[in-house]
Amino acid sequence: MTSDTHTPVARPSRARQVWRSMRRSRAAMVSLSILLLHLLLAVFAPWLTPWDWTAQDGYNMLQGPSAQHWFGTDNMGRDIFSRTLMGGREALKVTLLGTLLAMGWGSLTGISLGLLGGRLDEWLMRAVDALLAIPWLLFLLLIISTVGQQSWVLILTLGFFYGIAVIRVARGATLDFVARDFVMAARVRGESNWTIVRQELLPNVLDTLLVEGGMRWAWMLLAFSSLSFLGFGVVPPTPDWGLMIADTRGIISIAPWATLFPALALSSLIISINLSADAFGKAMGLDRAKAPV
Amino acid sequence: MKPLLSAVVVSAALLGSVTATESALAAGTFRLAHDVGYAGAESLDPISPSRFFYANQFLYSRLVRQDMEGQPSPELALNWRASADATQWTFELRKGVKFHDGSDLTAEDVKYSLERIKDPKIDSPVAAVLGVIDSVTVLNSHKLRINLTSAHADLPLLLMDYRVRIIPQDSGDTIATTGVGSGPFMLDELDPEGTTVLKAFDQYWEGKPASDTVEVIGIADAQARVQALLAGQLDFEDSVLGQQMALFADKSRFQTNSIATGEWRALVFRTDTAPYNDVRVRKALRMLVDREQMMTLVSGKGGGTVACDTPVWSGDQYRTQIECPQDIPAAKALLKEAGYGDGLEVDIYAADNEPEWIRMIEVYQQQAARAGVKVNLKIAASDGYWSDVWMKEPVVATRWSQRPADQVLNEAFRSGASWNETFFSNAGFDGLLDQARQELDYDKRKALYGKLQQALWQQGGALVPYHLNQNRVLGANVSGVDPVENFSIRWNKVAVVD
């Protein structure tokens, strides 16, 4: 019997470690599955809906769930199942792009400020504080009511506003690393600030940023649905969960199904994103309670 | 002697019980909401373009008001008669009427109130209706003669207008904020965006009102008003959808009624703006509508009476019968002829002020799509809708309350009228309006009003799909609101028992 105690054992990659850790969490697996299901349904909804989601039927208004209409019909006789399937597409499109935008500009600004420090950092962070003090809903409503409700306006507005909070997180995470040896060494080597941000700092704060991105996405979904609920998001007849809830809230005691199903869809998506981000953070070894906010 | 004594005692007891009942009724605050449609700029000047609709109905009196059947009946005027050629009308005024500032109503006040309607500085929408008044001659302190520029057989109908309120002489500069009238309630606090408080006017000519206080609360969103009603924060709401009426089935908390009215919600196209300045385009945009289906989907089955773009309602003596079935091929042909064979895109602006508007546009989107017309809904803010969007954007949603035929046709469609929201300008139409007013023979007059309605169907820019049944909900503890349209309600009799 021989044994080769000197054979090097390949260490699993960081991504694989994280995945293994997440697989051990039932909550993580359930939430990821729900999230994946939502994404798949959003992509394939147009081919899955049994009815035309805009077709109105004056003879079948406010019908309860049945074999023909699984989730019932709304106040204009439209099939709620089809509308619920379609209702997440616009929200997911706008908030995914909005989150990418927020994370992109917020992270780069935050990391750069953390690296540069000095007066610029001080002034800009006070400006960030001032912007964060503005009630977010008022801020969004002001811009959208002035510029319009087109998708690109919503993406830019949400992306800009949510990016402000990301600046603080990214800057806070960066400050842990700017005084480290490898950053000092890069400075001594004469690397440009942009190279230091890209090659030294970004890889180190990426874990924090990914978790932050997940959380921002969930909050942005909630914000987007709130805007639709208030009539400033998606415009009828495009199905949207927030809009569906707003349309039927006045008759919730007569036809609860018309509000219930879009509300369930919206809340399950937000919870699944939250739980997934939470599980991801734990798998990365991040303590979100101590994370800068 | 004994029977006499008993009679006195019983009478005193009965009188006491009646007084006690009245006292119980007198307690209470009547609360209703308005949509803050002028973003807080609501004016207590009854003829202002931004008049505070509900508050003004409580503050002021008219010469003539609707009876329970909607016909002219005396309010401040006791009686009236026309000259043989209907160019002069003599009115005798009620005596002992006081304004909220303690002054007495005289014929001078009426003269002032009626003559200021034509003041160009005010730019009152009523001017289009009562522009026919040339002057007012005071005959004595309580008698006056209205001199018209031309004959008008239905002048009392016009004087029933909810804005033709009588205010004290020379009060025009301050009336927008003081609200001094001779109505059953007087102003306590003006806050259109919050709560406007009105107090009972003890010297009201019909006696002390049954409620102590009226609160007119600003709630811009129609759904929020329904929720406020459900939560017991309002005692009265009249823009409730048919489907929502089931929410108020609890008889221990609410009373409901549904009344056929001349109210209408419409989509209006500016006839002075391309492409709606082409009569073929606007006819096509109205022909493609299935009105019965729209009414069912928006207001529920039997939610009103179909109209073919006439603002004259089915209960009006001058309403004419027009057929307007949905005709997609004809609409397509007209659009093609007008150069829109490949389709047309229409942006319609609306807000949440009325629960029907957005749903109406959603239905219109579906119906219009069949004729190749793409309808985009543009949602605007509710507060300020009337000042910032209406009559500014090319296509908007609108609402009108019930008006007599002559009034609504003049106010909404006469060239240059300040609420001519379609900017309809047609000399032939205006001429017909004048002819109809001057015609003293009823049948001929009716035929002329019929022609005017036909003209609107052929050339107009307003899509009036139906007249609404008004769904009204009241708290169970509210009394005195008769099941009649709003302008016939006697607000002084409305009581809320706490």
Which key phrases capture this entry?
heterodimer, A: 293 residues, 11 helices, B: 498 residues, alpha+beta, six-stranded antiparallel beta sheet, four-stranded mixed beta sheet, globular
Report on this structure.
The complex is a heterodimer of chains A (293) and B (498). Chain A is 69% helix and 0% strand. Chain A contains 11 helices and no strands. Chain A is elongated, with a radius of gyration of 23 Å. The N and C termini of chain A lie far apart (57 Å). Residues 289-293 of chain A have low confidence and may be disordered. By secondary structure, chain B is an alpha+beta fold. In chain B, α11 links the parallel β14 (344-350) and β15. In chain B, α8 runs antiparallel to α10 and α13 packs antiparallel against α14. Chain B is globular and about 65 Å long. Chain B starts with a helix and ends with a strand. Classes of the chains: A mainly alpha (293), B alpha+beta (498).
**Outline of chain B:** globular
Question: How many DSSP helices of chain B?
Answer: 15
Question: What does the main sheet of chain A amount to?
Answer: none
Give a count of the beta strands of chain A, DSSP E runs of length 2 or more.
0
Radius of gyration of chain A: 23 Å
Number of helices of chain A: 11
Which stretches of chain A are low in confidence, meaning pLDDT under 50 for 5 or more residues running?
289-293
What average pLDDT do the residues of chain B reach? 91
- The whole-number mean of residue pLDDT values of chain A reads 87
| Rounded radius of gyration of chain B (Å) | 24 Å
Q: What is the rounded distance between the termini of chain B? A: 42 Å
Largest interface: A-B, 22 and 28 residues
Tell me the overall shape of chain A: elongated
Structural class of chain B: alpha+beta
Instruction: Bin the strand percentage of chain B.
Output: 15-25%
In angstroms, what separates the terminal alpha carbons of chain A?
57 Å
